[in-house]
Write a structure and sequence with these properties.
338 residues; four-stranded antiparallel beta sheet; globular; 2 domains; Umud Fragment, subunit A; alpha+beta
Length: 338
């Protein structure tokens, strides 16, 4: 720029000269071989490998299972009625939604679809089980088992709670000497007659009570003191073992956890469950008390129902899937349970 041009610019009369941007080292801008700028678009996503697909699906499935387990443990659980013991309140083949929240939810108790039990923690509920409630609970085991062979949920009606004295007379429940109000759908199957051999199968061992005429007996309550002797030892042996203790009898002496004792103090509260189908129910009359902590919920509604089986005795057979769809019980869907 000569002195004359500089003078014109300073006075505002000249034209400003626009200089082209210099390219460092005279190199073209990043781009193609002709020096054109390279277009910056979305990068094409590389397709996932088989291993990556597998890991992604595994994470999705495990996440879904975890959500199902948490909801089942804390709020609502699905339950399928397997037997006829609660007819006609609920029927075999009914699918129920169970309220877990009312008695206190828990961490997951089983792995879905595999029926593998897990250690769990129970949480406080709104209230404890009461007489007349239909309850879902963890099966404690057969009469002579310390614990059940398999993890199973059972469904019965709570007819007595801890501290009550229960007696069954001709199939009807009497609590503390007073006849209880019958469930709305109590049922005495006319096709079934008393089995004389039942007195050797009922709980507790040695009493020889029948299912139709059982008791009277106090439902154990935490803090109760049970006097033990040679006569009633077999009555309470499994019960004490279920509470987590070693018990044995040496001659006329009873030993619990290596200590000679004459009594035992109950450590938990219990309830007693019976089916509304009084002549066809394998319940507490046969296998004993239900720990209150084993009670997990109460049914809300039937959300699906179909017939599972047909026939009686040896002729009993299970329906195929196609037959089940042909035997859907539409009139039971959305029925409440009381």
């Amino acid at each position: 720029m000569n002195p004359e041009e500089r003078k014109q610019i300073l006075s505002g009369k000249g034209k400003k000269i626009r200089r082209k941007p210099q390219v460092e080292n005279n190199k073209p801008q990043e781009g193609n071989s002709k020096g054109r700028p390279k277009r910056r678009g979305k990068q094409r996503q590389q397709p996932m490998s088989l291993k990556e697909h597998t890991i992604s699906w595994a994470k999705t499935i495990l996440g879904a299972l975890l959500i199902v387990m948490i909801v089942n443990g804390l709020l609502i659980q699905s339950f399928v009625v397997p037997t006829e013991s609660m007819e006609n309140e609920v029927l075999a083949g009914d699918f129920l939604f169970v309220n877990r929240f009312i008695y206190g939810g828990s961490t997951p108790q089983t792995i879905p679809f595999l029926n593998i039990s897990l250690p769990y923690i129970s949480f406080p509920g709104i209230r404890d089980p009461e007489k007349g409630d239909v309850i879902v609970f963890i099966y404690p085991g057969d009469r002579d088992q310390v614990e059940a062979k398999d993890f199973q949920y059972y469904l019965k009606r709570c007819v007595a709670v801890a501290g009550d004295t229960l007696e069954v007379r001709n199939g009807y429940a009497y609590v503390n000497g007073v006849k209880e109000k019958n469930p709305r759908n109590i049922f005495f199957d006319p096709r079934r007659s008393p089995n004389p051999q039942d007195i050797y199968r009922t709980f507790p061992r040695g009493r020889k009570w029948s299912p139709e005429n059982w008791g009277p007996m106090r439902i154990p309550k935490k803090g109760d003191v049970i006097q033990l002797n040679d006569t009633n030892y077999q009555e309470w042996e499994i019960f004490i073992q279920r509470e987590g203790h070693d018990i044995r009898k040496n001659s006329t002496l009873i030993v619990i956890d290596d200590k000679e004792v004459a009594s035992y103090t109950v450590e938990r509260d219990y309830v007693f469950g019976m089916g509304d189908n009084r002549k066809n129910s394998h319940d507490s009359r046969f296998w004993g008390f239900i720990p209150e902590e084993n009670v997990v919920g109460t049914p809300l509604i039937v959300y699906w129902s179909w017939k599972n089986k047909e026939g009686q005795g040896e002729s009993l057979r299970e329906y195929s899937l196609g037959e089940k769809f042909g035997n859907i019980r539409w009139n039971r869907i959305f029925n409440g349970v009381k």
